[in-house]
């Protein structure tokens, strides 16, 4: 590729899966195989996003490799920020003159840093190692304040102290217990748009919102025109109205007339939150299981579950670290004299399995990736037929709110079911077994 016209043609060929077409000396099918998730791309944004997020070790041997970002940088940049950057870059590519030469020194890391500077008032990433050093220095400085020399996330007093120290450092009230609501929680993909309608319904019904100061307040709109925007999920109109300050611009007011922005609101379950901190639920369960195993005085020993299942020759347990792509399949590694046993810990109420989303699933191997690619292709064609058959539907129609489009699903074939359920080593798998029990772990010797 030499010009932006060549790049646009390549992006289109990838979306159409024109596998015989070449990009320099490389065919499209080689590129599709080299970049995870690329086979599901339906737009310029999708192609750039897949290339952006591919592991550094994956190479397509084409100019598209320049769209990859350093894996460590990606791990510490919020997904909402990344999506904003990628959308801007997609528009730039689409609007650039076909005859303009491609920059051979194009650097995605530099583009991201420049975007952060311009969008977030000169706040940027100057070095991955520096960010890690800041946290090391922070915890070293305040280690003496915690009984164990570090914050025990199962200890309420340690959590409160940590919140206080971080709040003092960052200059605003920081909470670990529940996530602050932000624009991405309402708009980063179409399935979240319904939360805009939830907000409008709560305002119309006089249902209180939970705020970050701990209060519950009935809110109204600062501008009555916002009701139509939220009720009808007009994401583009809201974004254009607020610009880059979607999280801090006041949208609501309380009964006293105090102005309220998204940043002042808590991400409660009806808005996509869990309702409690992970430290209060699954993390508590995992650490309870680890502490119960490590507290046994004589080792090795036999670990017996409530259902009679046994793990013999146990010597200890540890937490499985999360991969950069998301949460590990394995929660607790039970150590034995014959090797490690990977355990996934679940609660008794509607335990979920095979989490990690599309990004993780698309990297579980070629069979799983092909299944996902084929499903997306078929779903696209299915929805396209409906769209083409109904002239009242246009590109401006909010398809999510019509009665034409229903959810589609497909049974996962048996040949990939096991991989999806237990995972692979890259993602903290494979899982050898499940612990399903209460969040407060009880044990006896």
Description of the structure:
With 445 residues, the protein is of the alpha+beta class. It folds into 5 domains: 4-119, no CATH class; 128-170, no CATH class; 184-271, no CATH class; 278-354 and 423-436, no CATH class; 365-419, no CATH class. 40% of the residues lie in helices and 10% in strands. It is built from 16 helices and 12 strands. The strands form 4 sheets. Strands 8-9-10-11-12 form a 5-stranded mixed β-sheet. The protein has a 3-stranded antiparallel β-sheet with strand order 5-6-7, with no helix packed on it. The chain has a two-stranded antiparallel ribbon with strand order 1-2. A hairpin with a 5-residue loop joins strand 3 and strand 4. Helix 3 (44-53) crosses helix 5. The longest helix has 24 residues, at 366-389. The chain is globular, with a radius of gyration of 25 Å. It starts with a helix and ends in a 9-residue tail after the last strand. Mean pLDDT is 79; it is low at 122-134 and 276-280.
Features:
single chain; 445 residues; alpha+beta; five-stranded mixed β-sheet; three-stranded antiparallel β-sheet; 10% strand; globular
Low-confidence stretches: 122-134, 276-280
Rg, please? 25 Å
Structural class: alpha+beta
What proportion strand?
5-15%
Q: H/E element string?
A: HEEHHHHHHHHHEEEHHEEHEEEEHHHE
Helical region count? 16
Helix content: 25-40%
Principal-axes geometry comes out as globular
Q: Give the N-to-C terminal Cα separation.
A: 67 Å
Mean pLDDT: 79
Tally the beta strands. 12
